Amino acid sequence: MSGDDQRDYDGFALLGLDRTGQAEAFDAIGDRYDEAFPHKDGQLAAGEWLAGALPPGSRILDLGCGTGLPTARQLVGAGHEVVGVDLSPGMLDLARANVPDATFHLADLADLRDGRLGVFDGAAAFFSLLMLPRPEIPHALRMLHGLLRPGGLLALSMVEADVDDYAIPFLGSTIRVSGYLRDELRQVVCDAGFDIAGESSWAYAPASTDVPPEIQLFLDLRRV
After folding, report:
1. Where does the pLDDT of residue 15 fall: very low under 50, low under 70, confident under 90, or very high at 90 and above?
2. Most buried of the four, 5, 135, 153, 213, by CB within 10 Å?
3. How far are the Cα atoms of 34, 65, 117 from residue 148, in angstroms, in the given order?
4. Cα–Cα distance between 76 and 109 in angstroms, integer?
5. Contact residues for 49 (Cβ-Cβ < 8 A; gap 6+)
6. Distance CA 166, CA 49 (A)
7. Are the beta carbons of 222 and 195 closer than 8 angstroms?
8. Cβ neighbourhood burial of 145 (10 Å; 0-12, 13-18, 19+)
9. Are 123 and 12 in contact (CB under 8 A)?
10. What's the mean pLDDT in 148-169?
């Protein structure tokens, strides 16, 4: 590990902001999550890029894997070795049932900084980093950079929003989210050591609400 990587890991560890309640919220939501978000075209397209751009049998981290749908199942179906990580025991129970051929671990994102899960050829972080306060997101990206082999790929998605650790109602619970406007997000990922190989945006509204569509940003990234 380089000196820069170690400082980023240490900074991420020192921030250690309280995420109490996030896992409990998703435990309570359970399989209602997939019912509320039934059509994930942007996520499926980004997962298809990741699955197709890596050689068969690649080792891929699914960070914030949730119920395992659609990403872990999609990547396993494409012939890859998938390791899923999530904070929510309830979500992991569903993921293990939905994708029995993947491996799942209960862990906080910061727990991975010690390399306990090894290195990966690719990673997916679909809407998982938005659960962090903004000061932690650059450190999390640098940590992912360190977990990927040189040239490794990262499929990243965020909601476009200029917010930091903002509490929102979510399927009967409350969660805290952060976001960036797209130019700032591009800068943050480049500063973390990634090249942007592709980008798309999708308007998306949950099936269970009448709220205006959010803009979802998907970045196809390659570790420099």
Report:
1. very low
2. 153
3. 29, 17, 11
4. 22
5. 155, 198, 220
6. 31
7. yes
8. buried
9. no
10. 95
